[in-house]
Design a protein that fits this description.
This protein is mainly α. It contains 5 helices and 2 strands.
Length: 102
């Protein structure tokens, strides 16, 4: 169990704080087929592969500069194709619940 500091609880109650949930929060989700969402790196590598693995993208991904790599991918794909790739990986599989992975 987490022991929350009283000041933090009060700040949240007064709406004087921002709760930030990282990208990994959904990593333990699965869909009815047992599939989990791709990590950022997995998603970016697949998108880079679809673009013919340009050296710039490979370098950015290896340097873990995922935000810049995503921006490059977004600019190189047609807007509808970029949105479709995001939906295909993160929305359409229908991730339903979290599970504990060991």
């Amino acid at each position: 169990m987490i022991n929350w500091d009283d000041e933090l609880v009060q700040a949240i109650g007064r709406r004087r704080s921002v709760i930030v949930i990282g990208a990994g929060v959904s990593r333990n989700s699965i869909n009815h087929n047992g599939k989990s969402p791709a990590t950022w790196e997995e998603f970016l590598r697949a998108a880079s592969n679809d673009l013919g693995n340009p050296p710039l993208l490979i370098k950015l991904i290896e340097q873990k500069d995922y935000l810049t790599a995503c921006e490059v991918i977004k600019k190189r794909l047609k807007p509808d194709d970029f949105i479709a790739s995001i939906q295909k990986e993160y929305q359409k599989p229908g991730y339903l619940r979290s599970c504990l992975k060991t």
